[in-house]
Specification:
This protein is of the alpha+beta class and about 160 residues long. It folds into two domains: about 35 residues; about 120 residues, Immunoglobulin-like (Sandwich). The protein contains two helices and nine strands. The strands form two sheets. Strands 3, 4, 7, 8 and 9 form a five-stranded antiparallel beta sheet that branches. A four-stranded antiparallel beta sheet has the order 1-2-6-5. Strand 7 and strand 8 form a beta hairpin. It is elongated. The chain starts with a helix and ends in a 20-residue tail after the last strand.
């Protein structure tokens, strides 16, 4: 009656081998899809602009494409190529042009918003593009001014934003 014990051991060994294979695939996918070398910060956010810096530490001479989302809604994208001498002086980049400033559209007043910035990463074979958040989300409040007094609540659906 050793056959059931052998069968049990074989099934356990097979299950362990499958689990290790799945973990190896997950690790491989993670490293090919997400760049662990993006560093940056959202330094300031107010009703007019969101500013910060972004660097790809694996390629510090390149400029990172960054995307801005306000309360989960896409606002804009741009290259992080604005002057930021402090990033260069800290040794994070090969030049001083790794900052970004997003000018914000008029937002409905008397609310608090959350700005999140993501670095766009393209896989080596250019088959996938992923967004990786860096830094902390910044919260900011919007007060009433002449430009935003009639902005609709669903501002992201307003003309020119679709």
């Amino acid at each position: 009656m050793r056959t059931p014990a052998r069968l049990s051991h074989a099934l356990i060994a097979k299950s362990l081998a499958e689990a290790l294979f799945v973990v190896a695939l997950a690790v491989y996918f993670s490293y090919t899809s997400f760049n662990p070398y993006f560093r940056g910060s959202v330094d300031a956010a107010d009703q007019h602009a969101v500013a910060g810096w972004a660097v790809n530490e694996a390629a510090p001479g390149t400029h990172v494409e960054v995307h801005l989302y306000i309360d989960g809604h896409f606002v804009s994208r741009r290259l992080a190529d604005a002057p930021r001498p402090d990033v260069f002086e800290a040794g994070r980049s090969l030049d001083a042009s790794h900052g970004f400033v997003f000018k914000l559209p008029p937002l409905p007043p008397n609310r608090t918003y959350e700005a999140r910035v993501y670095a766009m990463h393209e896989t080596g074979d250019a088959t996938r593009r992923t967004l990786q958040e860096f830094g902390e989300a910044k919260q900011f409040s919007v007060t009433t001014d002449g430009a935003n007094s009639s902005v609709p609540d669903a501002w992201w659906e307003s003309e020119g934003r679709r």
